[in-house]
């Protein structure tokens, strides 16, 4: 006889005894029922399907709901403010770099952008990570992509068509934090610069491959391996934080290593920047060919004493050392 059937019979017997006997008989029968082996509960494994985090009412007294690990959605007004700030920062950087040729003003924009887009917005206004979101939106019709994300992705590319890589100049928080630590940058040999430059294209292709995989294997590796977002949020996986710290330490001597060799969005920006309507020209009215600009550029963006549109990061460092800008050159 199975334990379940035995317990059913005991319950039936107890009911019959209660009907025929008195209080004493009922107590004896109840003790017999309680003394039966409690094996029935071991035969069934209770499972509660979970589709959401349990609340205190679900679990019981003393339970505390854990802190949500993802940022809550922002209102549309705040999202539009982010787009407006991004547009204004791009326009201001273009004006300072190409119109005013002002290094100090560009540096102030850099500090403001790393403060707002980095520490205040915690790296969430990010065209770099949007690469995979936009790609997924193109290949998967069921994936909903907001207009704000589309605007954030395309705005720096549109500005690059007209003014070069002004997003890299001081707006991008990842580039800005590296710009601020580039204290004694050294020149990287041109041959190394060329070979290392292919890494960002490999990273871009890998990110696209990972995002077009089936949903079960899909991985947003650009955001997951963002080396600096942990510093902006003051928390993150230890290994990623160590990678970011290593890049910042390297960036003291090698100018912007992530931007130049690993940033997949930098690879995309280099394409429209090649045909920019107006780009950095070190001495637009008369080329002095003194070579000070090439020595001042820590990013390998000056070849033949001319700024290369595809690789120039619009940082305006070359203006700071150009005698043409300080009125010390003989024209």
Q: How many runs of DSSP E, i.e. beta strands?
A: 2
Strand order in the sheet with the most strands: 1-2
Please work out how many helical segments DSSP would assign: 19
Query: How much β-strand is present in the residues?
Result: under 5%
Poorly predicted ranges: none
> Which structural category do the helix and sheet elements fall into?
mainly alpha
| 3D shape | elongated
Largest sheet: 2 strands, antiparallel
Oligomer: single chain
Q: What is the N-to-C succession of helices and strands?
A: HHHHHHHHHHHHHHHHHEEHH
Straight-line N-to-C gap: 109 Å
Mean pLDDT: 84
- Computed over alpha carbons, the radius of gyration is 32 Å
Helical residue percent band: 55-70%
Q: Topology, pairings included?
A:
Blueprint: H1 3-20, H2 23-34, H3 56-59, H4 76-100, H5 103-120, H6 130-139, H7 147-163, H8 166-171, H9 173-181, H10 190-196, H11 199-211, H12 221-224, H13 229-233, H14 238-251, H15 257-261, H16 264-273, H17 292-296, E1 302-303, E2 306-307, H18 317-321, H19 323-326
Antiparallel strand pairs: 1-2
Describe the 3D structure:
This protein has helices at 3-20, 23-34, 56-59, 76-100, 103-120, 130-139, 147-163, 166-171, 173-181, 190-196, 199-211, 221-224, 229-233, 238-251, 257-261, 264-273, 292-296, 317-321, 323-326; strands at 302-303, 306-307. The chain is mainly α and 331 residues long. 58% of the residues lie in helices and 1% in strands. It has a domain at 76-281.
In short:
This protein has helices spanning 3-20, 23-34, 56-59, 76-100, 103-120, 130-139, 147-163, 166-171, 173-181, 190-196, 199-211, 221-224, 229-233, 238-251, 257-261, 264-273, 292-296, 317-321, 323-326; strands at residues 302-303, 306-307. The protein is mostly helical and 331 residues long.
